[in-house]
Amino acid sequence: MFVDVAVLAQPEVFVQFKDDGLIDAEGHVANEGTQKFLQGFVDRYVAWVKQHLG
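Above: the chain sequence. Below: its structure as tokens.
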């Protein structure tokens, strides 16, 4: 089926919340490597949104 919708297929992010210190008590990402990974995703998402604003 074709619905003429722009889709951001890649990158994908799956975040599992568990008590292993990834997210601190204030809700911040505590692991530097994970911070960089998620920032890269957000940067690509922002670029994708700007590309499709019209």
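The chain has one helix and no strands.
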